[in-house]
Amino acid sequence: QRYLVESGGGWVQPGGFLRLSCATSGFDFNARTIAWFRQAPGKEREGVSAISDSGSSTKYAESVKGRFTISRDNAKKTVYLQMNTLKVEDTAVYYCAAGLPFAYSNWPNQNFFGAWGQGTQVTVSS
User: Fold this and answer.
1) Are 80 and 22 in contact (CB under 8 A)?
2) CA 52 → CA 19, 33, 49, 55, 124, distances in Å?
3) How far apart are CA 86 and CA 13, in angstroms?
4) pLDDT at position 2 over 80
5) Burial of 8 (0-12, 13-18, 19+ CB in 10 A)
6) 102-119 b/e (C-beta count within 10 Å ≥ 16 → b)
7) Maximum Cα–Cα distance across the chain
8) Angle at 59 between CA 26 and CA 54, to 5 degrees
9) Cβ atoms of residues 100 and 35 within 8 Å
10) Fewest C-beta in 10 Å: which of 1, 33, 76, 123?
């Protein structure tokens, strides 16, 4: 059974920061692309960031580039999303997802990610 568990969400004021974690188990973490997606109320789920299986390559949505940083600790089988300078429009449920290595080149296509977490709520408001 594949598991991905997100944590670190919460409420923060605009300009603040949060670090999300995605702890995984049940699959070969070192051979998986891991990505973050988010879904805001009334909107479709969208890609936020992705990291290759080796961790040597990363991708970001234009809306978060320069503010968010994705990283992975293969020893801990965990992926992180450092979110700085948060904006109201970053409010969403954030999901992490795992896919085979070629999922990286196909991100943000969600069809290439077969295992998903339950999500963690991030609320940015004053």
Assistant:
1) yes
2) 19, 5, 10, 5, 28
3) 8
4) no
5) middle
6) ebbeebbebebbebbbeb
7) 41
8) 45
9) no
10) 1
End-to-end CA distance of the chain: 40
Spell out the long-range contacts of 55-60 with Cβ–Cβ below 8 A and sequence spacing 24 or more: 57/104, 59/104, 59/107
- Which tokens is 50 given? 């992705």
pLDDT of residue 61: 98
Q: What is the tens place of the pLDDT at every residue in 66-119?
A: 999 999 999 999 999 999 999 999 999 999 999 999 999 999 999 999 999 999
pLDDT of residue 1: 79
Question: What's the CA gap between 99 and 10, in Å, rounded?
Answer: 26
- Taking only the tens place, the pLDDT of each residue in 21-61 is 999 999 999 999 999 999 999 999 999 999 999 999 999 99
